[in-house]
Amino acid sequence: MPAIDLPLLIDAARAAGDISLSFHGRSPTVWEKDGDQGPVTEADLAVNRMLSERLRAARPEYGWLSEETPDDKDRLAAQRVFVIDPIDGTRAFIRGDKDWAHAIAVVEDGVPIAGVVYLPARSLMFAAALGHGATCNGRPIRVSGQSNVARAQVLTTKPNLAPHHWSGGVPPFTRGFRSSLAYRMALAAEGKFDAMLTLRPSWEWDIAAGAVIVSEAGGDVTDRRGRPLRFNTPKRQLDGVIAGGAVVPALLAALA
């Protein structure tokens, strides 16, 4: 049952927050990853180490996919897999901002069945398990009912507004931004924004936890072509993501 894993994920996320906050605002050591994949800090690695030890000890039969762990293809044969981003929004973390998150999910046969997005610097715990709804700090949350794209508030980055992405011009929604993709998904699940979208290839660990939270909040989650998302794939990437409430079909229809 999906809900069995959720308390484990919540407890692990809180423990991750204790570690990350001990580094936050204190100039942690930073490295640049190979292949232009961005920065990583000593905090990312400390959180990843703790999560690996804690979660894998609790569920040794589960596979493991994390941004900060070399990929082990044995995960592809596992029915259930932890999909982890130890710190999503590392650049914001390095700056000392608050908009970064721990994103922890369990995926079963390619579908996220439990997930948490925890922002320790904001004391926000978004959580969901398949068939059990979505919450923020224990309070039920629901996606927006706004279907008019001209009135919508959408979390996205400026490159996604390039005209070539859109069939009839960029829709006249109001753009917002947060550093963490997982946090953008959580805000769409909460209905504080009507949707989020990213049209570039997206890593599974940024999306898995948010996907089940949006879905359980009554929303739609697809790739940029309107197809269902599948996780624990060999490539580890998705063809963009659109997630949110009633405006998602209009956004999909507007894309080139």
Automatic annotation (TrEMBL):
Keyword vocabulary terms for this entry: Hydrolase, Magnesium, Metal-binding
Gene3D superfamilies in the cross-refs: 3.40.190.80, Fructose-1,6-Bisphosphatase, subunit A, domain 1
InterPro entries found in the cross-reference section: Inositol_monoP_metal-BS (IPR020583), Inositol_monophosphatase-like (IPR000760), Inositol_monophosphatase_CS (IPR020550)
PROSITE patterns, A to Z: IMP_1 (PS00629), IMP_2 (PS00630)
Pfam families assigned to the protein according to its UniProt record, in alphabetical order: Inositol_P
UniProt keyword Magnesium present: yes
Family listed: Belongs to the inositol monophosphatase superfamily.
Designated name of the protein: 3'(2'),5'-bisphosphate nucleotidase CysQ
Species the sequence originates in: Loktanella gaetbuli
UniProt lineage: Bacteria, Pseudomonadati, Pseudomonadota, Alphaproteobacteria, Rhodobacterales
